[in-house]
Every structure is written in C-alpha cells, then in structure tokens.
Amino acid sequence: MPQPQVRTYDGRRALLDDVLGEDFALLGYRVDPRVDLSEEDLAGLTSLRTHFVALYDYGGRPQANKGSCAPAGLVEVEDLSGEAVAWLRDTGAKPGHVALIRPDKFVYALTDPGRTKAAVAHALRAMKTGRVTA
Fold this sequence. Notes:
The protein has one domain (5-129): Glutaredoxin, CATH 3.40.30.10. Helix 2 (39-47) links the parallel strand 3 and strand 4. Strands 2-1-5-4-3-6-7 form a 7-stranded mixed sheet. The protein has helices at 16-20, 39-47, 83-90, 116-129, and strands at residues 5-8, 13-15, 25-29, 51-57, 74-79, 98-101, 107-111. It is an alpha/beta fold and 134 residues long. The chain is 27% helix and 25% strand. The protein starts with a strand and ends in a 5-residue tail after the last helix.
C-alpha cells in the first residue's frame, strides 16, 4: 500500500505508515472502519493493538468544522497527495470500503461495506491458528 503524506485533525503532517502504526490497522475510506463491528470483534482487534484510521480525500474530512473531533479511538486523516485515495479507487474501493492492513503494510483484506465483520472474523481465526494468509 502506498505511503503518502497525510494531515491529521490537529494539522500535523505525517506519513500514512506512521499513522497506521507498527501493528495491524483497520483503514476506512471516508468511514469509521469500526462501524459494523461488534464489541467482540473490537476486543479481538484491540488485543492485536490494531489502529483505527479513517482516510479522506484532501479537504474531504466532514468534521472539519471548528470544535469537532474524531470519535474516541479513531484517527482521521486527509490524503494530501491523493496517492492513497487513488490506490483505493484503482483497487475498486469506493467510500465505505475498509482495508485490514497487516503490520508489514500488506493488505490482508479490502472489503465493501457490510463485509468488514467477516474479514475481521477470518483474520482473528487465522491469528488463533497461526495461519495468517489473505
């Protein structure tokens, strides 16, 4: 997955890899990637130290109004160059799609809205058996 420069809510510029962290990440394209997940799903992802990130087009973050902030536990970023958004679009993703990203920054799953829960369940089962494949 590309590593463009992004801007965080507080205006800080960073590389997307730095925002995603060194563990698993759940990246939502214009969406909170946790939206369809149960408490059990979230607990499993939290045990993997998963970072939750919403990626928006430059200038497209809906909470850009003064005084608003991202939901707890979610980092919202804008893609300054458009590189990550273009990559998502090139893979067929549309707003609402979610990517489960491995610590090595390879995409484990890219799901359309409503299928994130199944992808997360698959990944968590794979973690328990030690067989992590896409």
